[in-house]
Amino acid sequence: MQKGAKTVYQSTFLTLSGGSLGIGYRIHKSLGAVVVTLRGDVDPLEHLDSIAAYAQDPDFEPSQSILFDLDGCRFPNHGYAEMRAVAMKSRRTFLAQSANVRHACFVTDDVTYGMCRMLQMLLDDAPWETENFHSRAEALDFMQLDHGHPDYAAFADRWLGYRRPAWAARAQQAGARALQP
What we know:
By secondary structure, the protein is an alpha/beta fold.
């Protein structure tokens, strides 16, 4: 485990469709960051519960930036009303945040990316910045964490060391096929 980080919530839920879902978060207090991980088919109520879980943690501070890892996550039961509920819950939970706080969403599924884009638009006037990315490196750069901090290198290595997103592998394969005679 990284210095300055603690896993404070890791759980598995059943979605309405009967599949399993992993929701977890890790607070990196020394870097002022939280990594929230959502995997599988996420139900709207579970999505709202996950926000409440890390927001109630004693190590969570509203001034921490949040890096959302939605690699392989889908929102099959989310529509406008559900994303609006997530936006309202986010506003109530993170209202005390400063303008320096950033929320970066790393998303691999195109439909989930669209849902996150809708959420970004619903939070357009929030006091924190929210952006969506298909690239782990771009999401990490957007966070503007202190690269000189002693914990940053291990944090970045862990974040960037995850498996490559499926869309990148497909693009690389398509490019390789295009170059073949």
